[in-house]
Structure formats: structure tokens, C-alpha cells
Prior knowledge:
mainly alpha; 20 helices; Hydantoin permease
Amino acid sequence: MKNIMGFIKENLAVGLLLFALFLGAGNIIFPPLLGQQAGENMIPAMIGFLITGVGLPLLAIVAVAKAGGDLQLLANRVGPIFGVVFTSIVYLAIGPFFAVPRTGSVSYEIGIAPFLPEAAANHWAPLLITSVLFYMLILYLALNPTKLVDRVGKILTPILLLVILVLAIKSFVTPMGNPGDAIGKYVGSPLSEGFIQGYLTMDVLGALVFGIVILQALRGMGMHDPKKQVKTTIFAGFVAAIGLAFVYISLGQIGNTSINVIGASDNGGIIIAKSADVLFGNIGSIILSVTILLACISTAVGLLSANAQYFNRLFPKVSYKTYIIIFTIFSLIITNFGLSTIINTSLPILLIIYPLAMVLMVLSLADNLFKGGRIVYILALIPTFLVSLYDGLKELNVKIPFYEDLLNTLPFHDQSLGWLIPAIVGAAIGIVIHKLSK
């Protein structure tokens, strides 16, 4: 018992670090929107959201930990070229291209803009000034990732949890009102719609790359035994999963009880901002801004650190510090295009790479069943890509009639899960071929 308690105490900070890396802009703004739009179907919708927002990221953490904390080693099971290309795309997507700029934009729109006059909030100058200050802080924190456990896990995360806890208790003790009617796909298929909405958090993609940050932090703590690193990383994954589930359910509850008081909205940031004001008055906006800023700072630091470490290893002639500076400046530029532009631009890419990441992750966990046969990965990922590619193109209003007719025959295609059966069939065929070739 004493050994168990010692293990928990020793590694809890690592779990809080991983939780803080996950909890970013999307994790704050999407659950309230789901809660409001799902209405009376909140429970099945939230279950679907928790599967992609908590369950699958936990499995991804386990998969990456067993692969040595390296997404590229995992992707290399398909082939070395795929390993480099896919890993680079994932890193850039959840790094300086989309996820990091989203943290900067959300920090401004929810954490700063509500305190400004309307005319000033809609002007480009405050966003630029705020984002410059935001990324200066991010740059400082990211230049020394071995101290992330102390700076984020032990300081920022407990404060962040306390702020969310206050909001959550208030929303459950004195809810704003009753749930409204479900709208859109939440009416007929709330579970699958919640599952798809979980894509927007990018948590599975984040889980695949956070392994390198966690390992760096563990080495900074003097832990160099690979088996102990895997055990600690898996423990950290469970801590992060529990924290994320608590946050998602709490924020979903706030959105679910808000519609009769603040009205309907298609922006989760607006829902949570107005709800905080209703629940706590003027201090509610301050509580919310602190929550958003802490969440976005910790996530941006983790993502930029992971990107810089990966590309420094891929192209070592460029230093870690140089990559951090380049990615920070690039994120600063993208941030100033605004939140709506960032989300609309990222969605097609997300629809393409998210299914690939999930299939790769599940196959890696079942790798022992087919002894790592490359043909299994290839035959599962090819049909997955062919379906998910069209989902991404369709989001860009690029339609191919005969191809669309073919995909419409696939089970679950209406729920944007048309890739599921082809992936399973492809993997099964790959297993048969692999066994016959032996």
C-alpha cells in the first residue's frame, strides 16, 4: 500500500502535466456547444463525445508509450515514408498550423475581448497586441521543456482545476434552466454526432505527440528506465482522462441548461462566456478569462515543444531553439486571421487525418495478434484514407458524383463514419494474407 501511494504521489505531477497539455481552447468551447444543441439528448451525445475526447486519447497514450513515446516509430509500421509524412502532418496540424493559433485566438476572444468596448474588440489592433504578448510568454516557457512539470503540472494546472471546479459546482447546484430541444443531427443520432464532435478537440492527435514531451519531462526528473517510463506515462494518461471527463461533463452541463437564459448560439465560446456572467455576475467573466488563459498557455507550450523536438530530430542541423522561434512566429501570424477562419480551414484536414490516426492506433494495440504484419496496416489504412479523403474534399465543397454515390452505400456514411467498415475489412484481409504468407 505504501509503495502504491508513493508511486501515485511521485507521478501525479506528470499526470497533471498531461492533463494540462490536453486541456486547451477546443476542450473549453466545444462541450458547452454540444450541451446546448443536444438538449434532452445530452447523455448519449456526451457519451459519444467522451469516447473520442477521453477514451481514444487514453488508448493513444498507451499505444505511444509502448512504442517508445514516438509517433514516427508507430507510423513506421506502415512504412518509413508514411512514417515521416504522416507524423509531420500530425505535428504541424496540432502545432503551428491550427491548434496553437486556435489557443491564441480563443485566449483573446474569450479571455480579453469581453472586457473591451465592442468597437475595440472587433478591431485588428487589440488582437495583434494580445497575441504578441501571449506568444512572448509561450516562447519563454517553451525554451526549456524539462521544467514543464514544475511550471505547468505543479502550478498552472491546480489553479485551472480550481477555476473549473467553481464553475461546475455552481452549474450543478443552481442550474440556469432546463435543457432545450435537440437540434440537427443530435435529434436522430446524438451518440454518433457527439463522437464526431470529439474530433474537433484534436485530443487523439495530441495524445499521439505528447509522448515525447512526457518522456522529456521524465528524463529531466532522472527517470531513464524504459519500463518505468511506460508505466508512468500510462498512469499519467489515466489522470488526464479523469480530469478531461470531469471538465467535459461540467462544461456540457453548463451549456445544456443555458438556452432558456442566454438564448441559442452556434459558438461555444459565447455560450460559456454568457453562462459565466449569469452564474457569477461580473466576476464570472474574470473566472472564465483566467480559465481560458491558463488552459491555452499550457496547451500552446506543450504543442510547440513537441513540434520543435520532433523536427529538430528530423532535421538536426536546425536547433530546437530556432524551431521554437519559427513556430511561435508562424502561430502568431495565423492567430491574427481569427478563430472562425482557423476552425473552418482546419476541419477538412481533420476529417482526413483523424480516421487514419484512430485506425493506426487501434492496430498498434492489437499488433501482437498479427505479429506486426505490415500488410495489415496497409490494407486497413488505404480504404480508410480513400473514404476520409473524400469527407475532407466534401467539406471544401469539392464533389465527385460517382464516388459520392459509391460511398453512400457504406454503413454509417451519413454519420461520417463510412471509413469504419472498410478499415475493418481491410485489416481482416491483411491478417489472412499475412498468415498465408507465413
